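Human: Not sure, check this?
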Amino acid sequence: MTTTRLFVAVYPPEGAVADLGPVAEALHTSRARPMPRRQWHFTLAFIGHVESSRVDDVHRALAGAAGEARHAPPVRLTVAGGGVFEREGRAHVLWAAVDGDTGPLTALAETVRAHLAAQGIGFDARPLKAHLTLARPGAATTGADIAADLETLAAYRGPAWEVGEITLVESRGGNGAVHYDVLGRWPVSALPAQ
C-alpha cells in the first residue's frame, strides 16, 4: 500500500509574497531554516497520509468545496503581524499572521473539511490557526532573536488580496528537505486567481 502526505492550502498571490519577502529576509533568526517563498501558504486542512488510491476522492471533495465556496462572499486577507510556536520551551516555528476576513477564511476551511469528511477522508480536526511559516528557528536561536523578530512582524501589514483558489499539495521529505508538489487547484472566487 502506497501513501501520500497531503494538505489543502491557500497561497498568497505573488504581490503579497514579494512585499513580505524583504521583511522575512531581515529577521534576526539567522540560525533558522527559512521556508522558501514558493512554499508560503495558509493551511486550511492537514490531511496527512492517505492511500494513493484515495487521492481521487480528495479531488472530488475539493471540487465540491470549491463549488460551494463560489456562492459565498469573497475572502479578502492581509498578511499582518506574526508569532512563534514553541515546543518544549523552545521556538519551533516563526510565522506571519493573517488579518482581514478571518471569519470567512475559517468558514472556507470548514467547508473544505466537511467535504473531505463526506468522502471519508480523515484530517487534523484542530481549529484553524491560520499562519504562514517563515522559518524554523534552530536550537541556538536566542530569546532576543525571537523578541526582535516578533517586534518586526508586529509592525508589518502587507497589501490586501482576495483568495482566488484552494490548492491540494503533496508534501515529501522532512528535516529541512521538504518539497511541495501541487496536485490540483480549484477556484473559489468568481475572479481569476491572482
In short: The chain has a mean pLDDT of 90. Residues 3-174+181-187 form a domain with the Cyclic Phosphodiesterase; Chain: A, fold (CATH 3.90.1140.10). The helical segments are 14-25, 55-69, 102-118, 143-154. The longest strand covers residues 76-87.
